[in-house]
Amino acid sequence: MSDSVLLIGSGGHASVLLEMLIEHKINIMGYVSPSPASNHMLFSQYRWYQNDEDILQFDKATIKLVNGIGSLPGNTLRADFYTNYKILGYSFVTLVSKDAGVSRYATLDEGVQVMRGAIIQTGASVGYNSIVNTGSIVEHDCSIGSNNHIAPGVTISGQVTSQKNVHFGTGSSVIQSININENVIVGAGSTITKDVEENCICFPARITIKVRK
Fold first, then answer.
1. Are 32 and 47 in contact, with CB atoms under 8 Å apart?
2. What is the CATH number of the domain that holds 186?
3. Which residues are annotated as a binding site for acetyl-CoA?
4. Would you please indicate which residues are annotated as catalytic (active-site) residues?
5. Distance CA 42, CA 40 (A)
6. Is 30 inside any structural domain?
7. Domain identity same for 73 and 147
8. Same structural domain, 191 and 116
9. Per the annotation, where are the binding residues?
10. Is the separation of the CB atoms in 115 and 132 below 8 Å?
11. In this chain's numbering, which residues are marked as the site (Increases basicity of active site His) (predicted)?
12. Do the Cβ atoms of 173 and 192 come closer than 8 Å?
């Protein structure tokens, strides 16, 4: 990548992305955050910009943004930032860890981030501004929507489709050929075995068995 980048955020998610940028030897112009970075050792050598307005001083033709705002269920801050700065004409980096396994026949849209140990198989596609987090699996021919977060340890079987703004909680699983509509939260540890309507929250099944003495 020949462009320079500006990292947005200074929290845990941004820290992981910064380390990935360093490993890829990408030119980092600094980071933007209203508060100082908690990981001082990692961020100390980079310039700190405290306001979003500071981004506007950079030429959108020569710099790309890295969206280091974390993704939490029901929180639109990450998605809103992406949308607002796309409207202003900025582009976002698609970033894949060197320790991830992404098929050459998979498709990643703008701003997708793929973390260490993640696997994306052949024929899969991931929509813009989505995160495929640490150790998660997206199997063959899946279609993952925009602004999705596939949290650590998620397994998504083949030919699953998710629409926009879906959060797959840590350790959740989806069986093959399922359709998950927009604005869905798949709770941590849940197993999805049938299609999910929009604006739903899926909780793990809890079965209690009383043992007779």
1. no
2. 2.160.10.10
3. 149
4. 140
5. 5
6. yes
7. no
8. yes
9. 70, 149
10. yes
11. 141
12. yes
